[in-house]
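Sample intake sheet
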Amino acid sequence: MTNELKPMKAVIFDLDGVLVTTDGFHYRAWKELADELGLAFDEEVNHQLRGISREDSLRAIYRNNPGIQLPPDDVFHAQCTSKNARYVELLQQMTPADILPGALELLEALRAEGIKTGVASASKNAPLVLERTGLGKLIDAVADGNSVARGKPDPEVFLVAAQKLEVMPENCVGVEDAATGIEAIHRAGMPAVAIGKQAVGGDVTVNKTAELNIAIIKELWMSKQKG
């Protein structure tokens, strides 16, 4: 008696850098805060913040400024709040033009085949991003910083997304553009598609979202099922 292959029922995406581009907005908000605090910050440091929470991002910025200590908790959290308020202001400028090439087509193709789509994002602003870009109509469930207590590489956000989709994690594929996200996907028991070389550890890697299609995802799924 042969074991039946498990069906792929959902694909769960990180948001920033996978479906949309918000790097510029994050960079501007962090840069303004860093300049105000006298902290060195550039695009290279900003790139290191992919896939991690607001609090962990600010800690990383402080770490890149040796000799400057973290402030007391109340001041630290006020700084996080200030950055987020500015970021939310900037997000009001988002439009469907900020959807990454290929993302819309991929979501539509998955929906056409009856495969559910979810978002697993560290950002607490994921619902606003989906609203401003119009992608919300193609996403069946969202797990974000408002939904979880632990950030990536903890698998919680992907597990919560699967739960909201009413799909078992072992029937899902995850898509990420950060190494911490790839680790989170694997720890959730899902195969991982990596977007970009910085997302090390993926089961399959493409350079950008525009290169990803449903055939690649299906091929990955079948290869994992067979072996």
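Comment: The mean pLDDT is 95. Residues 179 and 199 are 4 Å apart (CA to CA).
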